[in-house]
Amino acid sequence: MIQTVERSSHSGELELFHGGVGVQGILSDLVIPAVPGEYYAYSSEFTEERPLYALMKCKANKDRPIIDAEDLGHEANLLFLFGNLNQVRVCAIRTAHVSGLLGDSINGESFGETWIAPAGITADDFYELRSRKDVTKLVEICQAACSEHRASIALEPGAVIAMMTDCGKYGLFLVKGLTPSLIQIDACHILL
Fold first, then answer.
1. Which of 25, 124, 128, 189 has the maximal Cβ count within 10 Å?
2. Residues 112-125 pLDDT 10s
């Protein structure tokens, strides 16, 4: 059975749907790993202070400060890089570590592998797939796109990025809003 979890970035709360019953909770900075089989749909914002993207359970904030990277271990998946609008990028956590973007004091041995690539779908396709909760199609898109993975990707509004990890997470995010210091995304992911 696939559970569905949805999060609203505006309320700071999430709603978990299990068997048609909604339960609300407060978001947390605790490390709360994704649960196999739960489909997560959410919005999130990343800033220069909180640029790490952790594909965790929706009870957990997805945006984290760099100082949390080592504690997150394999839960840390991506890093957003800020600058002027032409320099806003996303890269895999291992790439960020090897490039020195996380600082010298962080031990990256516990980081898993994350692959990223443009998804090759439109924003409308993303929203349709996300609302249908089509796990098979989500996995297909991520596997096809990430076979041509990149070390980092320049972001622009409307871009849809595919991601997958060596521990079985598959996800997509759409760049909803973008400034030199803020990235707003709509996303979905699942751990199989």
1. 189
2. 999 999 999 999 99
- State the pairing for strand pair 38-47/3-8: parallel
In terms of pLDDT, which residue wins out, 106 or 45?
A: 45
Single out the residue of 119, 134, 128 nearest to residue 164, CA to CA. Answer: 119
> Which alpha helices (H) appear in 33-92, and where do they start and end?
69-72
Q: What is the rounded CA–CA span in Å between residue 32 and residue 119?
A: 27
SS3 96: helix
The residues, any chain, with a CB within 8 Å of residue 20's CB and separated by 6 or more, are none
Q: For residues 32 and 170, give the distance between their C-alpha atoms in angstroms, rounded to a whole number.
A: 17
Q: What is the model's pLDDT at position 109? A: 82
Residue percentage of the chain with pLDDT more than 90: 68
Domain range annotation of the chain: 3-191
Q: How many other C-beta atoms lie within 10 A of the C-beta of residue 109?
A: 8
pLDDT in tens, 1-25: 444 444 444 434 444 433 333 444 5
